[in-house]
């Protein structure tokens, strides 16, 4: 198997470990624990540079499970919160299961590691991960004081309990990372090699779950006993660096063809969230949408250009009209503004309103006589008061927009309905 293929396959591990390290970095050493929920204090803002394409719809909670010493049982109490979900993701970035308000039997789930062979209680819903390290990413709907209170109460009531290898609960879950975490930096072959080395050392069974050519390739590039990049021969370092640069350019280009384009809008490929053998798309999404859910749960629809095909620029003014009948989502929806960093990551942009998105829970929007709503998009604040009320601030330069539709309608999933167009109104708003 070619070196490029090996790097492409392991690339999502790198992005997962980057977020894992970021989630622990700001904490004191005694607080850098797996198997313990870490609750984001509130909505993130323009300073946040963790997970790319963050949302304004939900409170986040997350944890990294370490299944080395046995399974972890997730238990969720009953709640009146209209929407919540807990995505269970292995290091390959697959959503191996989802707990949530939309699904029956979401009160508990036993998450087992790849090597667990102990007993499982009859009737206990369980899932087996391909990796010993598992990411739980929870989303709890907010948008009002009542929803916020419900979300806070629910997320702090979700429990994690470790089970021993004999199938009995141990009652304790926290544990420190078994190996030191390394900060992941982009465009650095040495950093990539070192993080994958640490990943394989932490979870020796991970590469063994793949087909023989891939397994042998991984063992050749990261041979047992070679623990440091500097222990590689210079020619091996050179070959790896050249291959890494090629793969990074391929992933960053994001032109694999998995995304579907309908008019202005780009739709996710059908494999998102559960990628199967689609390795390039898996790597692409790990760069620009790590933690993405499958389309049955939410559809992320993005746009980068206006109806004339010109890239969105904050110096222009645009209009997005929400139709009278609303957007095709059975749960909720939002339109979010992103600036793009040099590596393709998408994050909120600073603005005077501290508004990063508009959605079905945005209060006080002015409506047209037919019930439709016009959203005005520009960097400079509009002059008309009615437009300021409905203003979605943009960065001064290039930007991107993303619509999230939670529980999209069947017609939307089939492509029978498209989002409204983004219409350019004025140039050089000052």
In short:
The chain contains eight helices and 22 strands. It is α+β, with helices and mostly antiparallel strands and 430 residues long.
Structure in words:
The protein has 430 residues and is α+β, with helices and mostly antiparallel strands. It has helices at residues 3-25, 145-155, 189-202, 212-221, 234-253, 279-288, 385-389, 410-413; strands at residues 33-34, 38-39, 58-66, 72-75, 84-90, 95-100, 108-112, 126-128, 133-141, 159-162, 175-176, 260-262, 265-267, 298-303, 317-322, 329-340, 346-347, 357-359, 373-378, 391-393, 400-408, 422-426. The strands form six sheets. A five-stranded antiparallel beta sheet has the order 2-3-9-5-6. Strands 14, 16, 17, 18 and 21 form a five-stranded antiparallel beta sheet that branches. Helix 1 (3-25) packs parallel to helix 6. It starts with a helix and ends with a strand. The model has no long low-confidence stretch (mean pLDDT 90).
């Amino acid at each position: 198997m070619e070196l490029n293929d090996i790097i492409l396959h392991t690339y999502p591990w790198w992005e997962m470990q980057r977020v894992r390290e970021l989630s622990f970095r700001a904490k004191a050493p005694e607080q850098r624990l797996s198997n313990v929920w870490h609750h984001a204090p509130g909505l993130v803002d323009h300073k946040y540079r963790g997970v790319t394409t963050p949302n304004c719809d939900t409170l986040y909670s997350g944890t990294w499970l370490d299944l080395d010493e046995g399974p972890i049982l997730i238990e969720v109490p009953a709640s009146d919160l209209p929407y919540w979900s807990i995505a269970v993701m292995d290091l390959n970035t697959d959503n191996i299961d989802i707990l949530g308000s939309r699904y029956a039997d979401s009160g508990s789930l036993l998450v087992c590691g790849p090597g667990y062979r102990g007993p499982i209680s009859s009737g206990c819903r369980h899932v087996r991960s391909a990796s010993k390290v598992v990411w739980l990413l929870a989303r709890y709907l907010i948008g009002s004081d009542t929803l916020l209170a419900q979300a806070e109460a629910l997320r702090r009531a979700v429990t994690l309990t470790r089970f021993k290898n004999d199938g009995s609960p141990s009652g304790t879950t926290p544990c420190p990372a078994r190996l030191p975490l390394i900060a992941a930096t982009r465009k650095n072959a040495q950093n990539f090699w070192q993080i994958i080395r640490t990943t394989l050392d932490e979870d020796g069974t991970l590469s063994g779950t793949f087909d023989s050519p891939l397994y042998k390739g991984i063992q050749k590039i990261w041979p047992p006993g070679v623990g440091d990049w500097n222990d590689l021969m210079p020619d091996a370092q050179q070959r790896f660096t050249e291959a890494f640069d090629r793969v990074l350019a391929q992933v960053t280009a994001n032109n694999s063809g998995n995304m579907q384009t309908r008019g202005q809008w780009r739709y996710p490929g059908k494999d998102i969230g559960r990628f199967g053998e689609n390795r390039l798309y898996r790597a692409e999404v790990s760069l620009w949408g790590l933690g993405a859910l499958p389309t049955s749960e939410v559809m992320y629809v993005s746009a980068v250009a206006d109806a004339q095909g010109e890239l969105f620029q904050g110096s222009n003014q645009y209009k997005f009209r929400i139709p009278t009948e609303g957007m095709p989502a059975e749960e909720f929806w939002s339109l979010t503004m992103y600036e793009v960093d040099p590596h393709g990551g998408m994050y909120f942009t600073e603005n005077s309103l501290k508004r990063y998105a508009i959605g079905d829970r945005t209060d006080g929007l002015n409506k047209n006589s037919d019930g439709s709503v016009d959203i005005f998009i520009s960097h400079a604040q509009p002059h008309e008061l009615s437009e300021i009320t409905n203003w979605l601030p943009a960065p001064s330069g290039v930007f991107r927009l993303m619509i999230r539709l939670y529980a999209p309608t069947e017609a939307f999933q089939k492509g029978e309905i498209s989002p409204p167009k983004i219409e350019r109104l004025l140039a050089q708003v000052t």
